[in-house]
Amino acid sequence: MKFLRNALLTLMLASTFAGCSKDDDNKPASKSHKVIFKATASTGSNISVAVYAYDSNQTTATSLTGTTWTSPEITVPAGTVVATAAVSATGVNASSSLKVQIYVDGELKKEGTSTGQILSASVTYGF
């Protein structure tokens, strides 16, 4: 479990930097936003860990079970640059899938996917 958590943390950091480097203008958000992170795994899979953050404010949810997970709604303040999430799950076979999404102000903004028996999906959104 520690390995999985450390792998997710490393993935989140890499995603954050990659997400920032692709921004066209790198301007922070001019107003606050409501953000929700969601994960959905295929039938029979099991979501175990979710790590989500905006800028340097990170939250880890462990001991998760089931095929769906939703974060609490987070109000990110004006000046926020990036929101990111990484989720880990175990699939039942090689065709299992995991989808991670970021909703901002009720609108789907970004989505990341993974397939296989060991599932790890991440998503990053730059404001």
- What structural class do you assign from the helix and strand content? alpha+beta
Write down the overall geometry.
elongated
Cα gyration radius (Å): 14 Å
Number of discrete helical segments:
1
String of helices and strands:
HEEEEEEEEE
What's the architecture in CATH terms? Sandwich
Please describe what this structure looks like.
There is one protein chain. It contains 1 helix and 9 strands. It is α+β, with helices and mostly antiparallel strands. It has a single domain (33-126), classed as Lipoxygenase-1. Residues 1-18 form the signal peptide.
Characteristics:
single chain, 127 residues, alpha+beta, Lipoxygenase-1, 5-stranded antiparallel sheet, 4-stranded antiparallel sheet, 1 helix, 16% helix, 50% strand, elongated, signal
Summarize the topology:
Layout: H1 2-21, E1 33-41, E2 46-54, E3 57-61, E4 68-70, E5 74-76, E6 82-90, E7 97-104, E8 107-115, E9 118-126
Antiparallel strand pairs: 1-4, 1-5, 1-7, 2-3, 2-6, 6-9, 7-8
How would you briefly describe this protein structure?
The radius of gyration is 14 Å and the shape is elongated. With 127 residues, it is α+β, with helices and mostly antiparallel strands.
